[in-house]
Amino acid sequence: xxxxxxxxxxxxxxxxxxxxxxxxxxxxxxxxxxxxxxxxxxxxxxxxxxxxxxxxxxxxxxxxxxxxxxxxxxxxxxxxxxxxxxxxxxxxxxxxxxxxxxxxxxxxxxxxxxxxxxxxxxxxxxxxxxxxxxxxxxxxxxxxxxxxxxxxxxxxxxxxxxxxxxxxxxxxxxxxxxxxxxxxxxxxxxxxxxxxxxxxxxxxxxxxxxxxxxxxxxxxxxxxxxxxxxxxxxxxxxxxxxxxxxxxxxxxxxxxxxxxxxxxxxxxxxxxxxxxxxxxxxxxxxxxxxxxxxxxxxxxxxxxxxxxxxxxxxxxxxxxxxxxxxxxxxxxxxxxxxxxxxxxxxxxxxxxxxxxxxxxxxxxxxxxxxxxxxxxxxxxxxxxxxxxxxx
Length: 391
Fold this sequence. Notes:
Blueprint: H1 5-10, H2 20-27, E1 34-38, E2 41-44, H3 52-57, E3 61-63, E4 68-70, H4 87-99, E5 105-110, E6 114-121, E7 124-128, H5 144-155, H6 158-164, E8 167-174, E9 189-197, E10 200-201, H7 204-214, E11 221-225, H8 231-248, E12 252-257, E13 265-270, H9 272-279, H10 286-299, H11 302-306, H12 308-320, H13 327-360, H14 366-372, H15 378-390
Antiparallel strand pairs: 1-2, 2-3, 3-4, 5-11, 5-12, 6-7, 6-8, 8-9, 9-10, 12-13
């Protein structure tokens, strides 16, 4: 699964051209899971065909001009002790155990934020999530791309130099603005969780050297496993790590290792109290449904979010990584989605009305705009003034 995916990804350059159909055929993923998000730019979205490639391809970006492909971030699984019903998770754990006779398993602290990749194409910098090739949103939204750029320029300007050198740094974006759907954090920050070079993850030692050179912040190592172990011994080690995370007050750890020149193999372990919330009951706690709804709201445009099949599907895909979607759970997910959808639909209608007014009238001042729109909905007026500020 993980071990040779970067080689498969590299060979995509052999295709005569990148189209939705050619990429779908090459990766054997339904064409509905590739989307041309801009002319000549195709984004791979999560698929649910039950094969490993579904989880590894998500977020990959293909720029037809210049033939530049940027690898996505894979879904990281729990061990088979948590998800015995998910064959890909069991495969990930088995690959990890097979690596231990060659490389140590390093457990880095897991942070609870948004995953952001910084990359460069044609002298332009982009900030990508798993669902966006460029994570900039409308001005009235919480804007992950804009926020990441601000933090880079204020605290980590050397990150641009790292991207200039052909690397793709992968960050966890932390912000108090995410308090409704992530663990609390007091300040905005970027944690360098991984680095890609030629669409392959670099090892921890190289990551540390690059972090020192470019003055970036790495997650600390919480533990290291250096000797081969059996599945039973590994389970015991996981339980110990869960307790350790709980004592440290952190969300969890991500185990990372390699086998020779292979791709990186991941596994995720969450703190005992958080794992109990996730998996100790068949009912998904409300907090995690709301977190997924808000996360997808940030990732999609308003138009995409209010499309019930598309928006709800994204939320269910996100929750499926950690939970079993029973009929009862699906009913709760649909309920919370519909509540948020009503709000977003009103925002969308107001924004479209504001855009129409802005296009039809040449307002000479904000006072004139305020007088003209005094009978409009307050939200329409808000968006109209936002459009005016950007002009």
